[in-house]
């Protein structure tokens, strides 16, 4: 392509979003936006408004801000820092692939950079074709569909929409499974290997699965594909679900209960990976690496090893390039 020409398309990378600061005020603002989305919490309004503002947002932000503060880095929230690194790495990889600058724009469903901001950035590039890549390997109405809603809302004032293609999920993409397997093998080469591999995914309420959310079954399929790729036997691995919110039943087995059982059973070493997250965040760095480690060890478990998310690993970025190439054919 002639460098003076308009790029053939833009890529919109989307993720959940994170608070602006590890303070109760910033966490309250973030949770107020996130937990008001009907895709996330479907309790009828106005009852949910009363519970959210009357109870949850008075208590939770203080506790959760402390958890954020414990993982906050020099450049901010881990989710934001890693998302920016992914954006930059993908930009460079696409330049190497296509020989020109392909705009790669980052947008968060909640907080900043917002979908509105991403829409403005995209218009400024002049591209008229856009590929949307939500960085959720498994589709859920609570995450992927929420990106769709927010993007559609942000594009409402546009008099002319870009031609848009959309990646729903990549939970069994060979490049994704290979990157996960590489990360486990590399971890084992450096730190030795545990007795069991726990693949812990963020959960959703059981009710959401019952009414057709494919997320838990896609998590199970990812876990099975990774176990097969690593050559694990049935007793060497388990797929579990973490991050419960509220009192209702969530999809099972629960990660914390599993680790209690394994600790009590005297499991000598467990390795834990979290393939629902494309980037390390509060739920991995604090809940999985700190809280659940304590749960396992206080119940008699031995060594506990947390294997990081794929983040900006080269093989993860390569997989994104493959997704872009396969979904922009003809552009
Ligand atoms: C990876 C996929 C995710 C699914 C599915 C998901 C569903 C889901 N989450 C909540 C409630 C909370 N999640 C929180 C944090 C959080 N969740 C995800 C991803 C998924 N959530 C990420 C990447 C993060 C971390 C964000 C960060 O800033 O690092 C939180 C906030 C923390 C807390 O208050 O405990 C809540 C709340 C529900 C209810 C839900 C499905 C219905
Ligand atoms: Fe969540
Ligand atoms: Fe959590």
Could you explain the architecture of this structure?
By secondary structure, this protein is α/β, with parallel strands linked by helices. Among the domains are: 24-71; 174-307, Rossmann fold, CATH 3.40.50. The protein is 48% helix and 13% strand. It has helices at 24-34, 47-71, 78-98, 115-125, 144-154, 174-191, 206-210, 215-230, 255-264, 282-298, 314-327, and strands at 10-15, 104-108, 129-134, 163-166, 196-202, 237-242, 269-273, 303-307. The longest helix is centred in the first third of the chain and has 25 residues, at 47-71. The model has no long low-confidence stretch (mean pLDDT 97). The structure holds the ligand C=CC1=C(C)c2cc3[nH]c(cc4nc(cc5[nH]c(cc1n2)c(C)c5CCC(=O)O)C(CCC(=O)O)=C4C)c(C)c3C=C and fe (ii) ion (2 copies). GO terms for molecular function: ferrochelatase activity; metal ion binding. Catalyzes the ferrous insertion into protoporphyrin IX. Its EC number is 4.98.1.1. It catalyses: Fe-coproporphyrin III + 2 H(+) = coproporphyrin III + Fe(2+); heme b + 2 H(+) = protoporphyrin IX + Fe(2+).
């Amino acid at each position: 392509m002639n460098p003076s020409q308009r790029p053939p398309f833009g890529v919109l990378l989307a993720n959940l979003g994170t608070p602006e600061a590890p303070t109760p005020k910033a966490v309250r603002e973030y949770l107020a936006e996130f937990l008001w989305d009907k895709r996330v919490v479907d309790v009828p309004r106005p009852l949910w408004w009363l519970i959210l503002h009357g109870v949850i947002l008075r208590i939770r932000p203080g506790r959760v801000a402390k958890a954020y503060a414990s993982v906050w880095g020099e450049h901010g929230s881990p989710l934001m820092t890693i998302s920016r690194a992914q954006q930059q790495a993908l930009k460079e990889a696409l330049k190497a692939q296509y020989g020109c600058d392909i705009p790669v724009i980052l947008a968060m469903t909640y907080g900043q950079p917002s979908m509105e901001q991403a829409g403005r950035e995209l218009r400024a590039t002049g591209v008229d074709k856009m590929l949307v890549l939500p960085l959720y390997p498994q589709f859920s109405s609570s995450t992927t569909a929420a990106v769709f809603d927010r993007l559609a809302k942000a594009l409402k004032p546009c008099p002319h929409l870009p031609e848009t293609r959309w990646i729903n999920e990549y939970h069994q993409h060979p490049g994704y499974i290979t990157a996960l397997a590489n990360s486990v093998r590399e971890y084992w080469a450096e730190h030795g290997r545990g007795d069991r591999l726990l693949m812990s995914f963020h959960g959703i309420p059981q009710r959401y699965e019952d009414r057709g959310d494919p997320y838990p079954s896609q998590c199970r399929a990812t876990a099975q594909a990774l176990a097969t790729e690593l050559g694990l036997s049935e007793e060497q691995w388990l797929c579990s679900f973490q991050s419960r919110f509220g009192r209702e039943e969530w999809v099972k087995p629960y990660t914390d209960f599993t680790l209690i059982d394994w600790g009590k059973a005297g499991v000598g070493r467990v390795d834990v990976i979290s393939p629902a997250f494309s980037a390390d965040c509060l739920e991995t760095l604090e809940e999985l690496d700190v809280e659940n480690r304590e749960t396992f060890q206080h119940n008699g478990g031995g060594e506990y090893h947390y294997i990081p998310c794929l983040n900006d690993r080269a093989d993860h970025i390569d997989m994104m390039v493959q997704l872009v190439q396969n979904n922009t054919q003809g552009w």
